[in-house]
Amino acid sequence: MSNLMTGGQMRTHEQAVIGGGSVTGLALMQRAGQGVFDAISQAFPELSDACGRRALILCGPGNNGGDGFVVAHLLAAAGWAVDVALLGEAGHLPPDAAANHARWVGTGAKRRDVLSLDQVVPLIAAQGAPDLVVDAVFGTGLRRGLSADVVEALRVSIEAARHSVAVDILSGLCADSGKWLGQAADLTVDLTVTFHTAKPGHYLAAGGRATRRLVIVDIGLPVQSARIEDAELIDAPAYSGEVARKDPASHKYGSGHALVLSGGPGRTGAARLAARAALRIGAGLVTIAVPPGAQQEVACQITAIMLTRVADSEALGVVLEDKRYSALCLGPGLGVGERTRSLVSEALSAGRSVVLDADALTSFADDPMSLFEQVRGADVVLTPHGGEFARLFPDLAEQLRAVAETGPAVSKIDVVRAAAARAGCTVLLKGADTVIAAPDGRVRVHAACRERAAPWLATAGAGDVLAGFVTGLMARGLEPLEAASHATWLHVECARAFGPGLIAEDLPEALPGVLKALL
Ligand SMILES: NC(=O)C1=CN([C@@H]2O[C@H](COP(=O)(O)OP(=O)(O)OC[C@H]3O[C@@H](n4cnc5c(N)ncnc54)[C@H](OP(=O)(O)O)[C@@H]3O)[C@@H](O)[C@H]2O)[C@@H](O)CC1
Ligand SMILES: [K+]
């Protein structure tokens, strides 16, 4: 896993390193621009012959613009014809950006013109499409939405150019949240080149869709060891290797016994999906607890999975006298209401690992605090989708939903971290960008975008399978944050392994192949 640093964390780190005297801001800017130039060469080998190539570099009023001037200089040195446009007054640029602006403009007979940003659209109309456009208008210093003329210049250049590149992050996107500040510009570039670490905004919200490729350039800043305030990205190509390995000598009870509670007749499919997922991911035994009326329906559709009758919370208490049940899953298809609330309370009082999903969450919509009082400090994972999250944490959901006029905007990381602290247990908020937070502040992000895109995962029952994966891993003894993280990664991996046509039943069946590939 790697760290995701916010704009503020990057600034603090950069200032500390510069303050320590080992490097100057100007040197970092040179490395950043060189990194962008190198990444362009690697990503677009068809541009290696600079002869006759035209680039348009859009520079902003801060250090992101300074990086743009470095890129302009390197492209021109390589033989490109380069036009540079600047938003704002050159006299107001910060020192390092001003130095690179001055170097670009040059002196004497070799002086170059810098256009203003409002000359960009007429330039493209006159000259035709450039081979390359570089967006160096705003990076981590974006504080408010883009004005209409900036959006227009960006849109026309990005849509016209054969290749488009954003320096650090596409202008208009908040680096901390991935949200568009102000009105959404909904632009996409071919490549984004960022520095030192990726930023949350490259993965969250619109940020996951705003670039087709992301390259992280090492600019020589020292790597910091992970701190609790850093969000970690679940990104390793073989993340769940340790999950794939099972102790060959282990007894089936050594891998835990998962209990999945089912809804009544006609509503048992979700629990069966979760149970199958728990078994496939390595729980030694899995039992479905069914209300008596659904016993036949479940019995005729299971083989390795066992069944026990549980009419109510009292019956659940009796079942849980068997201490070998190590993890429980409540929610998929369970029904909303008092019966589910009492089953949840019984499960939580038994002191096992518990996954609460779907109806088990919605059942507490009227009084979320009564749920939080019961889960606080226990090995519990809540796995809401956006709607369920809004029922339990309406104020946080509202903050996340609100249009952000100023930056940095409230991010999914911020709200899930706050939710986990409030609930006192691990919270996994599902989505194309999944954020998992532990109550101690640790946060993991997984985004099914770019090389991990899994559009087929938006299918009925996929969430039940995810709940089953988390349950199975907790049954095996993984702590909540680890179980939730591995389950999330493997869930996407299964969808990607199966591909188009995926339905939820296919996810547990794709898992053996995925695990085998990890060994
Ligand atoms: N940190 C590092 O380690 C390194 C950082 N590097 C580079 O520096 C970049 C960060 O630079 P940065 O801090 O100068 O911010 P940046 O995004 O250029 O813009 C700030 C300017 O924009 C203005 N402004 C903001 N929003 C606006 C709006 N909507 N419309 C109009 N104006 C707006 C804002 O004005 P103000 O809000 O103060 O009025 C201010 O003038 C970073 O992304 C990376 O590329 C690398 O060189 C090497 C290592
Ligand atoms: K940019």
UniProtKB/TrEMBL annotation:
Keywords of the record: ATP-binding, Isomerase, Lyase, Metal-binding, Multifunctional enzyme, NAD, NADP, Nucleotide-binding, Potassium
InterPro entries in UniProt: Carbohydrate_kinase_pred_CS, CARKD, Nnr, Ribokinase-like, YjeF_N_dom, YjeF_N_dom_sf
Free-text comment on the cofactor: Binds 1 potassium ion per subunit.
Cofactor: K(+); Mg(2+)
Cited Pfam families: Carb_kinase (PF01256), YjeF_N (PF03853)
Stretches assigned to the YjeF N-terminal domain: 10-227
Single GO BP term: nicotinamide nucleotide metabolic process
Reaction(s) the record says it catalyses: (6S)-NADHX + ADP = AMP + phosphate + NADH + H(+); (6R)-NADPHX = (6S)-NADPHX; (6R)-NADHX = (6S)-NADHX; (6S)-NADPHX + ADP = AMP + phosphate + NADPH + H(+)
Source superkingdom: Bacteria
The keyword Lyase is annotated on this UniProt entry: yes
UniProt-annotated binding residues for K(+): 64, 135, 171
Residues of the YjeF C-terminal domain: 235-518
Annotated binding of AMP, by residue: 430-434, 463
E.C. no: 4.2.1.136, 5.1.99.6
Molecular function GO labels: ADP-dependent NAD(P)H-hydrate dehydratase activity; ATP binding; metal ion binding; NAD(P)HX epimerase activity
Residues at which (6S)-NADPHX binds: 63-67, 168, 270, 333, 385, 464
Subunit-level organization: Homotetramer.
Family designation: In the C-terminal section; belongs to the NnrD/CARKD family. Belongs to the NnrD/CARKD family.
Known function: Catalyzes the epimerization of the S- and R-forms of NAD(P)HX, a damaged form of NAD(P)H that is a result of enzymatic or heat-dependent hydration. This is a prerequisite for the S-specific NAD(P)H-hydrate dehydratase to allow the repair of both epimers of NAD(P)HX. Bifunctional enzyme that catalyzes the epimerization of the S- and R-forms of NAD(P)HX and the dehydration of the S-form of NAD(P)HX at the expense of ADP, which is converted to AMP. This allows the repair of both epimers of NAD(P)HX, a damaged form of NAD(P)H that is a result of enzymatic or heat-dependent hydration.
Full protein name: Bifunctional NAD(P)H-hydrate repair enzyme
Natural source organism: Pseudooceanicola spongiae
